[in-house]
Amino acid sequence: RAVTVLVIACPHALGLAVPLVLVNATAMSAKNGILVRNREAFERAKSIKTIAFDKTGTLTTGHFGVQRIYTDSIDEIKALGIAASLESLSEHPLGQSIVEEASHRKLQLSKASDFKAVPGQGVEGVVNDRHYRVGRPEWVEELKLQFPPALKKGLQEREARGESAIVLMDDQQVLALFGLADQVRPSARAAVVKLQKMGVQVVMITGDAEAVAKAVAGDLQIDRYYARVLPQDKAALIHRLKAEKPTAFVGDGINDAPALSEADLGLAIGAGTNVAIESADLILVKSDPLDASYALKLAKATYMKMAQNLFWAGGYNVVAIPLAAGVGYSFGVLLTPAIGAILMAVSTVVVSINAMLLRRTRLSD
């Protein structure tokens, strides 16, 4: 009986219950583009109820793009082609976004002549034997040109959304208006929907103006957002959110590092700064906010597997050790050392197989 008890009490299953699950979870994380820098924080991810995203570079690409084109007395494609022809000779980032939009639509640009950059206003030149200007809306007033009511209304709409605007003019009037804004990452909307379905509150934090924050939050259907947050105030804001619920923070910049350290779980965008990456617990290699939802789902699945393994390993010892000691003798149940060895091996196999089943978790569902 003593030998059987010693054989069955061998703590193989109990010792493997957690490490095997963590090894598989780490492997799955890496396979899905999530690097685990702090395994302890990864285990805490199961209890996250709020996740805060920095806007620029995380939910958005940090790169301006054309959101809307308004025209008057000219075709939209023609207006875009003329503006891109002039801006192709400029180095201004807003101008380059117009060139990229024309390239995306596969437009053939015309050769511009007499090109001139006007500091603080825009650019001008001749395209198809006609003089045009592309620049700030304020330039229109200075030149005392006509601003059609439809385009002026479009300007008000873009400004209400906190977007930048560029106008195309000839020598008489404004012909077109381009609304430019920081582009939302394609997967950001899916990430917000998935997190909300998981019961996690999504919060957006940005240093941008209220109008910009409201527009992006509305686009992503985020109910709670904070605008005009100074870099040094982000960590304090995360501290307040932590006091309400366990909170994760996703960021990419140098000024996000204190907030990443303050959060219960810090997730850094792979394309972010080295300081942010060093301050984070998890790194989203593909710079995809959707991976944040995968990380939380995997963390919950990992915790469940660890609990199952510990329950099995502990329950096995609670039942098997008394049987090995002979409590079932009066009922005709008597375990030999050989049977005890088989049971000990089976418990280890069960724990190992259950840990491997973690790999069947479909994070994208």
Main features:
about 375 residues; alpha/beta; 6-stranded antiparallel beta sheet; about 20% strand; elongated
Walk me through what this model shows.
This protein is α/β, with parallel strands linked by helices and 365 residues long. It has 15 helices and 13 strands. It has a seven-stranded mixed beta sheet, with helices on both faces. Strands 3-8-7-6-5-4 form a six-stranded antiparallel beta sheet, with helices on both faces. The longest helix is centred in the C-terminal third of the chain and has 36 residues, at 290-325. The mean pLDDT is 89.
Condensed summary:
This protein is of the alpha/beta class and 365 residues long.
What's the structural blueprint in terms of helices and strands?
Elements: H1 2-8, H2 12-31, E1 34-36, H3 39-44, E2 50-54, H4 55-59, E3 60-71, H5 76-87, H6 93-104, E4 112-118, E5 122-127, E6 130-135, H7 138-143, H8 149-160, E7 164-169, E8 174-184, H9 188-197, E9 201-205, H10 210-220, E10 224-226, H11 234-244, E11 247-251, H12 257-262, E12 265-269, H13 274-279, E13 282-284, H14 290-325, H15 337-356
Parallel strand pairs: 2-9, 2-11, 9-10, 11-12, 12-13
Antiparallel strand pairs: 1-13, 3-8, 4-5, 5-6, 6-7, 7-8
Task: Sum up the overall morphology in one term.
Answer: elongated
- The first-to-last residue Cα distance is 50 Å
**Rg over alpha carbons:** 30 Å
* Estimated share of beta-strand residues: 15-25%
Q: What is the mean pLDDT?
A: 89
- What structural category do the secondary elements indicate? alpha/beta
Element order: H for helix, E for strand: HHEHEHEHHEEEHHEEHEHEHEHEHEHH
